[in-house]
Amino acid sequence: MIELVIGLGVVLLALIIWFKRPKQKAVKGDELAIWPFEPMPIMTDSEVLFFKKLQLALPEYLIFSQVQLSRIIEPSDEAGRDRQFWFNRVCRQSVDFVLIDKDCQTVLAAIELDDWTHESQARQKQDAKKDKALASAGIPIMRFHAEKMPSIEMVRMDVIEVLRQFG
Q1: Which of 24, 28, 79, 114 is at a distance of 20 to 30 A from 143, taking alpha carbons?
Q2: Does the reported pTM lie above 0.85?
Q3: How far apart are alpha carbons 155 and 121 in whole angstroms?
Q4: Who wins on pLDDT, 111 or 17?
Q5: Domain that holds residue 156
């Protein structure tokens, strides 16, 4: 009989704890049928112009725009237990363009089109981190200046030279 009373007491206590637990709060906006988002252009006007030049200059390759670094590099085994730390270092960064082999998997180079926004010290620090992460993964990064927009021929020459060096 005492076991039954103790068992009922434990069940009752568990029920009290269950109902007294903090309720998970709904995240603001989850209840809305439509969220306040609208489409935006994926590239600036300068990036669109440069993208077209890349396509004409390098028709034998695939070119993707606005690619997150975390889609083209990942922490190596050397990161060990710090894998998440190293992932977090690059997860919110992106590159303007990625040159991909026709196999649709091999990243050949990252390409940035730098404009006046890259002149600030904070942005230069961010660019240095991006360059270091890509270099560590063995991916060359090329930087072109939007104000000194190169010709199609110059783009091809510069990219092919870098690919030869890293190939």
Answers
A1: 79
A2: no
A3: 27
A4: 111
A5: 45-166
Residue 159 has pLDDT above 90, yes or no: yes
Q: What backbone phi and psi angles, to 5 degrees, belong to 41?
A: -65, 140
Residue 133 identity (one-letter amino acid): A
The number of C-alpha atoms within 13 Å of 52 and in the hemisphere containing its C-beta is 6
- Specify burial of residue 39 (Cβ count, 10 A radius: 0-12, 13-18, 19+): exposed
Average pLDDT of the segment spanning 150-165: 96
Residue 93, domain member (yes or no): yes
pLDDT value, residue 4 = 66
Q: Which H helix or E strand runs over 131?
A: helix 121-136
CA distance 112 to 141: 7
* Domain count within the chain: 1
Is residue 52 included in any domain, yes or no?
yes
Let me know if residue 142 belongs to a domain: yes
